[in-house]
C-alpha cells in the first residue's frame, strides 16, 4: 500500500509539472513537454494520455509553415474542463471576470460601488447577484465553476478566505467562503491585491532575466498604499509576502489614518492624505473614505505649474514612501522597486521625496539607489496575479481529485 501511495504521489507531481509547463509556455509538443519538465519521453506519454483521457487536456494538429511534412501534435488545456470567476474589489468599484480552464477571458463587467452604501450586508448581496449574473450571461451552471478568486486591499487571513480589515469595510470582517457556501460548490480563495501584483511582476521579471532574478518589491499607490515583495527561493520557487506597509509608522502622533491610528505612511501618502496637505486641513480630520482621482489630478496640475503648497504635498507623500522603503530594504536586501497603481501618474511629483527618504537607508548609502520603475497598468497585473495563483491551485486540485477517483475505481475492481 505504501509503495502504491508513493507511486501515485510521483504520478501526481509529474502531472502537475506537465500542466504547469502548459500554463507557462502555451500549447506544447511532446518533445517540448519533455524538455520543459525534464521528464522522460515515456513518462510524458503516460501523463498526457491520462490527462487527455480525463478530459483535462486535448491535442490538436498544427500544420508546418512550409505546408510539407507531418503536422505537429500540440497539447493544451481543455477549455471547458472548468471555469474560474475573478472578483477584484477596489475602493470605488468591483470587477467580475469569467475565465475558462485555459486562462482565456470569456466575460467581464464592472459595477460601481456606491460610496454612500458601504455596509457588508449590502456588499455581499451585490456580490451574490453579480456572481449569478456572470454565469447566466454565459449560460453556465454553477457547478462548472471550479473556483472563485477574490482580492482586496487590506489584511487577509493567511489560511482562510476571510477579509480581516480593509479600507472599505474597516473592521467588519467578511468570510467569503461562509457567505457563498450555500449557493456555490466552487472553492473560494482570497488574496491581498498588492501580493497578487508582486506575484505578476515577479513572473514577468523572471521571464526577462531567468536565473538572474533574485527579488523585487511592488509599491501600489492610490487611495490605499500597499507593498508586495517577491523573492526567488533556493529551488527556484517564488516566496511572496505583503507586509502591512501602508500602516507602518511614519511619524509618532502624526496625521490620522483611515485605520484609526496616527502617523501611518498612508496618512501621508494616500490620496486623502495628499488632499489634506494640499488644502492645509488639520491632521486630526477624519480621512475621506474615497477621493476622486480627478481631484488629485487638479492638485497635480497645479503643482506642475509651480504651486508651492501642492508641490510640498506630493513631496511629503514621497518622503513618507521613501522612509518606509528604506526600512524595508534594511530588513531585506537591495532590490528593484516597481511603482504601480493609480498614484503612479504622479511619480514625477513624488520622486524627490522618495529619493530623499531612500537616501536615509544605510543599504542605499552603501549600495546605491535601487532601480525604480513605473508600471501604469496595475489592473492587468492584479488580473494576471489572480490567474497565476488560481489556475495553479485548480491544476493541483484536479490532479488530486483525479487520483482519488482512480483509487476508488481500483479498489472497487
Topology:
Elements: H1 2-25, E1 28-29, H2 30-37, H3 41-53, E2 57-62, E3 72-77, E4 83-89, E5 93-100, E6 105-112, H4 120-137, E7 145-152, E8 155-156, E9 162-165, E10 174-175, H5 176-180, E11 187-192, H6 193-209, E12 215-220, E13 226-232, E14 238-241, H7 266-269, H8 271-278, H9 293-304, H10 308-331, E15 337-340, H11 347-358, H12 362-367, E16 372-374, H13 378-412
Parallel strand pairs: 4-7, 7-11, 12-15, 15-16
Antiparallel strand pairs: 1-3, 2-3, 4-5, 5-6, 8-9, 9-10, 12-13, 13-14
How is this structure best summarized?
By secondary structure, the protein is of the alpha/beta class. Helix content is 45%, strand content 20%.
List keywords for this structure.
20% strand; disordered C terminus; five-stranded mixed β-sheet; Arc Repressor Mutant, subunit A; alpha/beta; 413 residues
Structural description of this entry:
This protein folds into three domains: 2-77, Orthogonal Bundle (Arc Repressor Mutant, subunit A); 81-195 and 380-398, Nucleotidyltransferase, domain 5 (2-Layer Sandwich), CATH 3.30.420; 209-377, Nucleotidyltransferase, domain 5. The longest helix is centred in the C-terminal third of the chain and has 35 residues, at 378-412. A hairpin with a 3-residue loop joins β4 and β5 (93-100). The protein is built from 13 helices and 16 strands. The strands form four sheets. It has a five-stranded mixed β-sheet, sandwiched between helices. The protein has 413 residues and is α/β, with parallel strands linked by helices. 39% of the residues are buried.
Amino acid at each position: 500500500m505504501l509503495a502504491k501511495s508513493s507511486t501515485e504521489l510521483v504520478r501526481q507531481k509529474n502531472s502537475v509539472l506537465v500542466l504547469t509547463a502548459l500554463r507557462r509556455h502555451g500549447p506544447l509538443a511532446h518533445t517540448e513537454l519533455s524538455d520543459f519538465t525534464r521528464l522522460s519521453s515515456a513518462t510524458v506519454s503516460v501523463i498526457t494520455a491520462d490527462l487527455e483521457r480525463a478530459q483535462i487536456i486535448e491535442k490538436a494538429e498544427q500544420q508546418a509553415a512550409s505546408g510539407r511534412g507531418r503536422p505537429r501534435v500540440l497539447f493544451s488545456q481543455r477549455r471547458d474542463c472548468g471555469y474560474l470567476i475573478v472578483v477584484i474589489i477596489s475602493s470605488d468599484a468591483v470587477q467580475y471576470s469569467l475565465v475558462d480552464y485555459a486562462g482565456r477571458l470569456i466575460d467581464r463587467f464592472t459595477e460601481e460601488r456606491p460610496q454612500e452604501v458601504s455596509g457588508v450586508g449590502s456588499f455581499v448581496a451585490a456580490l451574490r447577484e453579480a456572481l449569478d449574473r456572470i454565469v447566466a450571461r454565459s449560460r453556465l451552471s454553477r457547478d462548472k465553476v471550479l473556483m472563485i478568486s477574490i482580492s482586496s486591499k487590506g489584511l487577509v487571513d493567511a489560511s482562510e478566505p476571510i477579509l480581516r480589515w480593509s479600507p472599505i469595510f474597516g473592521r467588519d470582517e467578511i468570510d467569503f467562503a461562509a457567505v457563498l457556501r450555500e449557493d456555490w460548490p466552487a472553492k473560494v480563495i482570497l488574496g491581498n491585491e498588492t501580493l497578487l501584483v508582486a506575484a505578476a511582476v515577479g513572473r514577468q521579471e523572471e521571464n526577462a532575466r531567468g536565473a538572474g532574478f533574485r527579488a523585487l518589491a511592488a509599491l501600489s499607490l492610490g487611495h490605499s498604499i500597499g507593498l508586495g515583495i517577491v523573492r526567488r527561493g533556493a529551488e527556484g520557487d517564488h516566496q511572496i509576502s505583503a507586509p502591512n506597509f501602508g500602516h507602518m509608522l511614519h511619524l509618532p502622533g502624526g496625521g490620522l489614518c483611515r485605520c484609526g491610528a496616527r502617523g501611518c505612511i498612508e496618512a501621508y501618502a494616500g490620496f486623502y492624505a495628499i488632499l489634506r496637505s494640499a488644502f492645509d486641513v488639520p491632521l486630526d480630520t477624519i480621512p475621506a473614505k474615497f477621493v476622486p482621482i480627478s481631484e488629485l489630478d487638479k492638485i497635480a496640475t497645479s503643482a506642475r505649474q509651480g504651486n508651492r503648497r501642492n508641490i510640498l504635498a506630493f513631496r511629503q507623500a514621497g518622503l513618507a514612501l521613501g522612509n518606509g522603503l528604506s526600512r524595508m530594504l534594511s530588513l531585506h536586501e537591495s532590490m528593484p522597486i516597481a511603482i504601480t497603481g493609480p498614484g503612479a501618474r504622479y511619480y514625477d511629483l513624488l520622486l524627490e521625496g522618495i529619493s530623499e527618504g531612500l537616501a536615509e537607508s544605510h543599504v542605499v548609502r552603501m549600495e546605491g539607489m535601487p532601480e525604480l520603475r513605473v508600471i501604469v497598468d496595475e489592473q492587468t497585473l492584479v488580473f494576471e496575479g489572480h490567474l497565476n495563483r488560481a489556475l495553479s491551485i485548480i491544476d493541483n486540485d484536479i490532479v488530486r481529485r483525479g487520483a482519488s477517483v482512480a483509487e476508488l475505481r481500483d479498489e472497487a475492481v
